[in-house]
Amino acid sequence: MEQYGTILLVEDDESLAQWVADYLNNQGYKTQCCHRGDEVVAMVKQFNPDLVLLDIMLPGQDGISVCRELRQFYNKPIIMLTAKDEEMDEVIGLEVGASDYVIKPVRPRALLARIKANARAAQDSSNVEQKNSALLSVGNLKIDTQSRKVMVSDKEVVISSAEYLLLHFLASNAGEVVSRDAVFKATKGREYDGLDRSVDVLISALRKKFDDDPQNPEKIKTIWGKGYLLVPSAW
After folding, report:
1. Which among 9, 24, 85, 84 is positioned nearest to 54, based on CA atoms?
2. Please, how many CA atoms are within 13 Å of residue 196, restricted to the half-sphere of its CB?
3. pLDDT at 86 over 70
4. Are the C-beta atoms of residues 9 and 36 closer than 8 Å to each other?
5. Burial of 48 (0-12, 13-18, 19+ CB in 10 A)
6. Residue 97: left (phi > 0), alpha (psi -120 to 50), or beta?
7. Side-chain half-sphere of 77: how many Cα atoms within 13 Å?
8. Which of the listed residues 52, 68, 208, 228 has the most CB atoms within 10 Å of its CB?
9. How far apart are CA 100 and CA 171, in angstroms?
10. Whole-model pTM above 0.85?
11. Are strands 78-82 and 51-55 parallel, antiparallel or unpaired?
């Protein structure tokens, strides 16, 4: 079978982990398992997987803090596995740099679709950045597309990988309203399903980091019924 890439699956339920790993291996991925949160960083540094599937509830170190630590050096997709109805876990996971999340119980085909979509979005983003100029500028906002460093008025603003993908897409279309569906396709590699709040969470996080009043935003506007707008004159 064709080999698609490597995945690190972090799940403390060993029987579930083995079941998911067997399924992914049968789909053409090479999957390694880790059962403790405090072992993840070392394994990622050693194996450099193409994608990390990260459970939130883990012994040794919880998935949220693991994700935050990984984002200090790892810029590939991280998909968090979260319990049903734990909306706060989803929000916090996105804020610390998760690319996406999947709600348990895991449905194999849905999980596979999320993996493929996130891998495709990461590759598309990399290809676009290689083709574009190394520097994207909108007013005082400067985005170095090679180092992924973001500067505003010559001061660096630290943002997560998911936030970067969204900001880069909005800045690339500065002055134009982009639909929610277009944002999902560009940053997540899939269409908006009508329920996913992840983009709203990321928009809120970006506004906070760029001192954009959430009650009356000027830099990143929500155009009700149409989408989002990065306003060039506000930067």
Report:
1. 9
2. 20
3. no
4. no
5. exposed
6. left
7. 29
8. 52
9. 21
10. no
11. parallel
Which residues fall within 8 angstroms of residue 204, CB to CB, at 6 or more apart? Answer: 214
Strand extents, DSSP E, 11-66: 29-34, 51-55
Tell the residue number behind the tokens 């890439």, with chain if given.
5
Residue type at 208 in one-letter notation: K
3-state secondary structure of 29: strand
Closest by Cα among 112, 60, 103, 79 to 9 = 79
Which residues does residue 222 pair with via DSSP β-bridges, in sequence order?
228
Q: What's the longest Cα–Cα distance across the chain?
A: 54
End-to-end CA distance of the chain: 50
Residue type, 17: A
Contact 191, 181 (CB under 8 A): yes
- Distance set, CA 162 to CA 2, 21, 44, 152, 203 (Å): 28, 25, 18, 18, 10
Cβ 103 vs Cβ 83: under 8 Å: yes
Q: Assess whether pLDDT exceeds 70 at residue 41.
A: yes
Instruction: Decide: helix, strand or coil at residue 186.
Output: helix
Angle at 39 between CA 37 and CA 44, to 5 degrees: 105
Integer-rounded Cα Rg, in Å, for the chain is 18
How far apart CA 88 and CA 183 sit, in angstroms, is 22
149 residue type, one letter: K
Q: Where residue 195 falls among pLDDT bands split at 50, 70, 90?
A: low
